[in-house]
Prior knowledge:
Layout (H helix, E strand, L loop, with lengths): L22 E2 L2 E2 L4 E3 L6 E6 L1 H10 L12 E6 L1 H6 L1 E2 L6 H10 L1 H4 L46 E7 L5 E4 L8 E5 L7 E6 L14 H12 L7
Antiparallel strand pairs: 1-2, 3-4, 5-7, 6-9, 7-10, 8-9
Amino acid sequence: MTEPVVPVPARPPIPVRLAHAPLAQGLVVPHITLAHRDRTRPVWGKLDHRRLREALSRRLCQVCGQPLDDRVVLYIRPADHLRGISPEPGVHPECGHYSRQACPMLAGRQTRYNPHPPEKFARCEDPACQCRRWQANERDSREAPREGQPADAWYEVWIPISDYTTVHDPGTDTAPPVTGIELRGAKLLKIRKVRDAAPAADGTSHPVDLLRAHLAFAAMFGYGGLRL
């Protein structure tokens, strides 16, 4: 049977805040994405952990790398909500709007997490590039593999910068450590689902989605005073 032809989506317009950001294949290269010294040559799907730590500690937007403003947008899964930590830095509202269109996972165009073949980094010819020091990440044995698994539901959550706090969870016997933005007790300014979870082929269920209850509560009573 012939596979259906999936049209390639148009590149989303780039907001003014990202006008000077590096581009690859017509898309903005996020600030925390691993890339060569020439940042128009990214390693899509990989994070630069030095930039990630810097973004968390200095309250920088993970897309443009500039300081966050009064309102911060986080993209989280139900499992992140259950743990009480967003594992990635926040973004500006306009950077988030761009990401919802450009990222195939957030946009709902991708129904499975990408399978990850053995990491083989392409070394460039720039002697000043750090690519010669890149090494494959070792997976924590407590981390559940996501490669090839159905996509989770994703939510957009807005919080004030005053509630934007970096925390570290050392993990447990069954959960790996994680550093990110604390969700417990953060005042909720806005919340909305940006995509549904993809159905699991084997009939297994996704983590309990308590964010759905928050969304229903917010729709009924408004956002004022609601906390995650």
